[in-house]
Design goal:
- The protein has one domain: Maf protein (Alpha-Beta Complex).
- The two termini are about 30 Å apart.
- Strands 1, 2, 3, 4, 5, 6 and 7 form a 7-stranded mixed sheet that branches.
- Helix 3 crosses helix 4.
- It has 6 helices and 7 strands; from the N terminus they run βαβαββαββαβαα.
- By secondary structure, it is of the alpha/beta class.
- The relative contact order is 0.21.
C-alpha cells in the first residue's frame, strides 16, 4: 500500500501515544502531522524480563491505552541495556553516575519498540523492536561530574542524550541514530507506507 499524502484533507493527524518531546520533534521534522495523546501505563520492568520483551510489552500497552478506532496511532518505548541489565531513567544524580560508569568505555544497546495501529477498516496493528549499538568513550570522572551537573541526564534512558551534550560521550553508533533519540524514523516511515498510513512531507517539516 502507498502512504496517503499529508496534504489530503481527509487525513487526520497521527496520534502519538507518548509525552516524549524527542519523538514529537522527530516526527514534526519530517512533516508528519501529529496529535500528542500520552498513554498512561505502568512502565516498570517485570522481574527477569528481557529488554526486548520489556519494550515490546510497554509499547503494546501504550497503543492499547489509546481508544481511537478511526485514527492512526503510534506508540513507542525505549530502553538502554548492557550486560543484560535494563537501564531506564535515573531517579537522581547518584543513579545517573552509576549508569554512566557502567556504560563508560564500553558498547551498549539501545532498544526501541514501536507499535502502529490504523483505522479498523484499513490496517491491523504492527509492532517491531529496533536495536542500535552505541560505543561510549572512556571519559574521565571529571567529565562525568560535569555531565551530571548539567542535568541533561534527567528523563533519559541510560542517563545520557545523544542529541545533546551527551553526543560528546559517544564514540560510535551502529544502526539507527534516531532510535537512540527515541524513535527509529526510517523503520516507522517504512511501516506507515506498507500499511497505507500517512506519509511524511519534508517540505512541510519543522526544522530546528
Amino acid at each position: 500500500m502507498q502512504p496517503r499524502a499529508i496534504s489530503d484533507p481527509l487525513i487526520d493527524p497521527l496520534i502519538l501515544a507518548s509525552a516524549s518531546p524527542r519523538r514529537r520533534e522527530l516526527l514534526l521534522r519530517l512533516g508528519v502531522p501529529i496529535e500528542v495523546r500520552p498513554a498512561e501505563v505502568d512502565e516498570s520492568c517485570h522481574a527477569g524480563e528481557a529488554p526486548a520483551a520489556y519494550v515490546r510489552r510497554v509499547a503494546a500497552a501504550k497503543l492499547a491505552a489509546i481508544i481511537a478506532p478511526d485514527r492512526w496511532v503510534l506508540a513507542a518505548d525505549t530502553t538502554v541495556t548492557i550486560d543484560g541489565q535494563i537501564l531506564g531513567k535515573a531517579a537522581d544524580a547518584a543513579e545517573a553516575r552509576s549508569m554512566l560508569r557502567l556504560l563508560r568505555g564500553r558498547a551498549h544497546q539501545v532498544l526501541t519498540a514501536f507499535a502502529l495501529r490504523g483505522p479498523a477498516a484499513s490496517a491491523a496493528a504492527f509492532a517491531d523492536v529496533v536495536v542500535t549499538e552505541v560505543d561510549v568513550v572512556a571519559f574521565s570522572e571529571d567529565l562525568m561530574e560535569q555531565y551530571v551537573a548539567c542535568g541533561e541526564w534527567r528523563g533519559k534512558a541510560g542517563a545520557y542524550a545523544i542529541q545533546g551534550i551527551g553526543a560528546a560521550l559517544v564514540a560510535g553508533v551502529r544502526g539507527s541514530v534516531t532510535n537512540v533519540i527515541g524513535l527509529p524514523l526510517a523503520e516507522v516511515v517504512a511501516q506507515l507506507a506498507r500499511l497505507g498510513g500517512p506519509g511524511p512531507c519534508f517540505t512541510q517539516g519543522q526544522a530546528e
